[in-house]
Amino acid sequence: MPSPPTNASIHVPLEILETIFDFRDIVYSSPGFWTTLHIPLPTLAIPPPQAKSSDKGLAEYMDLWFSRAGDFPLTLHLAMPADERPPQSLIHYIVHNQRWRSLTFRTVCIPQHYRPLRTPFWMEELLDATTILSEELGHGCWRMLQSFTIESTSSVMVSPFQFVQAAPLLKDVNLTFHSFSNGAFISELFVDAKNLHSLSLVGYVNQITSGVASRLYYGIIQGGARLVSLKIPGHICEMSATSSMPAPVVPVTNTVLSCLHLHNCPNIRRLLMNIVLPALSELQVCRVDDCIDAAPHTIKMGDSIRCLVERSQCTLRCLRLGRLQIDKENLIHVLESLTSLHNVSISHEAVENAASPLPNGIPFIQQMTVRQNQAYFLPALMHFSFGDTSIRTPTSSQLVNAFRQFVEDPRRWCNSSVLQWDPASRKMREVEPAGESNELRNRTLDTGLYAPLETTHLFAGRNETCVYSRVMKSWIGKHSSALA
Fold this sequence. Notes:
Elements: H1 14-29, E1 36-39, H2 57-66, E2 74-81, H3 88-96, E3 100-108, H4 121-137, E4 147-151, E5 155-156, H5 162-165, E6 172-180, H6 182-186, E7 198-208, H7 210-223, E8 229-232, E9 236-238, E10 252-253, E11 259-263, H8 266-272, E12 275-276, E13 282-286, H9 301-312, E14 318-324, H10 331-337, E15 343-348, H11 362-374, E16 383-388, H12 393-407, H13 410-413, E17 419-422, E18 427-430, H14 438-447, E19 455-460, E20 465-470
Parallel strand pairs: 1-2, 2-3, 3-4, 4-6, 5-6, 6-7, 7-8, 7-9, 8-11, 10-12, 11-13, 13-14, 14-15, 15-16, 16-19
Antiparallel strand pairs: 17-18, 19-20
Helix pairs in contact: 3-4, 8-9, 9-10, 11-12
């Protein structure tokens, strides 16, 4: 924190000195400069020089900083140690300050204690303190809080959702843990979500029944009257992998939900066929961990998406599907019907089988090219990304060629520039693509059937190395590695 302005001066020109002091006066007299504070982990162990004791140092530092913010709402980003108890003065200051607008806590674990099997100490103490104070006041102690975030590599054994009860105006909740215990996650069912605009829960969910999972998903979607974004990408480890999540008697409707991120598993595919989301514009269904579901995928992903879109009559703009066996998902036919898509990202992952070679994504890309030549296929597409972890080095060139045949269609890049490496000048220069005539370019410009692609990415191999990239309305040819 800078020292207060003084009249002391060194040998500096008078004009510069006046400018410096004017700027410092502006900073010190402007409350807006002091409304946000980021404190990394090392600061916890280093109290400010003027602190009276190490126990009160950080709290006094925060109080001194925010005292210049006037009556403005406050934002705090604080890194907390996972295996150490924080000073009581720090907990007291955070809980009793009622002007928080945004709180973000990040737990940093030292390597030898990475992902501990218990809830961080600071979280237990902060939770107890907020609960006690809210009961004493008769209302939530954080009455102005709108955004609450926890990012931790720890497991959580207590309910983090009690923090929501301390903030009646809370709109955005983002909780990231290594795993949620059964009791902590079920507590979410009793949270009044009618005021939430965004809810993100990232982490494993341990051992819950299909009935609880059903009430969890359908309850949040139906109860979130203002919920615009729902993200639960983590894997749910059910007690019975062969049981199915019961479907509601009547499809569950949410008229405002526009962004939905879920985990790829059989129950989620069934969920998509029993919800109605008229405002949905972004859908992501990916497997973000290495858990393999014991239950077979009896419902194809393409069928689930088609049912959701047709039932909801929504305008889907963005579709991200990760780590699928695309040769079994019936995706080509559903992409034909999604003419409003602007952004498509698909990742193929084949299940290894020693008895047969791994299927790859080359046939899928080839089918997309065929559809593009035969019909009105993805006319609004502007961003396309494709990944294939089953590709080996001998076949990677085949995937690149298939990918280029789709994305380098003249109807898609007619308005974009083409860059190619020039060995003579050792620079990228704009050239006309080989095989394209002026007559073809003029004809495709006049049709206007397709939106010009802006970005495309192709990833192949286990390490997801980018072997082809076309960025910012330009594609880089076979010498793209020379740009590095």
